[in-house]
Amino acid sequence: MEHVLLSVHVLGSIVFVGGSAVATSLFPRYAPAADGEGRSRDVAVALHRITGGYAVFGLIVPLVGMVMAGVQGRMGEIWIIVSMVLTAAAALLLFTQIYPRQRQALADAGDPARLRQLSMFAGFYNLAWAIVVVLMIVRPGSGEGA
Fold first, then answer.
1. Residue 14 contacts residue 93 (beta carbons within 8 Å)
2. 104, 101, 114: which is closest to 35 by C-alpha?
3. Global pTM?
4. What is the chain's alpha carbon radius of gyration, rounded to the nearest angstrom?
């Protein structure tokens, strides 16, 4: 059973979290802006859909991760707790800042500074996931390393 949970967790991370991370990073480059250079509304719309859709499907990753941690009796380990906090922060950032700002950028082509700010939020989102990946590999405080 643990192998199935781990497989779903890792594959979900790669496909859904990875997909949303790439889409959030690329969106500002293609979103409509006042300067119009190098912009493609159609690509931006597709990236916006990927961001939202993959993020929703990506919810399976922390859910399966928590089930797996519970089955393994690891819920109290620091690396699990920090990973859950970072995952919650990344989800909050995505659903309250990134996705709404993408929608706004599609509705109203405007200031490239807003798109730079969106890029910054995408960078924080991706950094949170990078830290979670490192924690999953290193497992600080667990008494074992990978």
1. no
2. 114
3. 0.88
4. 17
The amino acid present at 20, given as its one-letter code, is S
- Annotate 10-34 with b (16+ C-beta within 10 A) or e (fewer): eebbeebbbbbbbbbbbbbebbbbe
Which pair of tokens denotes residue 16?
């859904």
Q: What is the pLDDT of residues 64-118, one digit of tens each?
A: 999 999 999 999 999 999 999 999 999 999 999 999 999 999 998 767 889 999 9
Which amino acid type is present at position 36? G
- Reduced to 3 states (helix: H, G, I; strand: E, B; else coil), residue 99 is helix
Helix, strand, coil % over all residues of the chain, rounded to 5: 80, 0, 20
| φ/ψ bin of 104: left (φ > 0), alpha (ψ from -120 to 50), beta (otherwise) | alpha
Other beta carbons within 10 angstroms of residue 51's beta carbon come to: 26
Tokens encoding 100? 């709404």
Query: Alpha-carbon distance 132 to 11, whole Å?
Result: 15
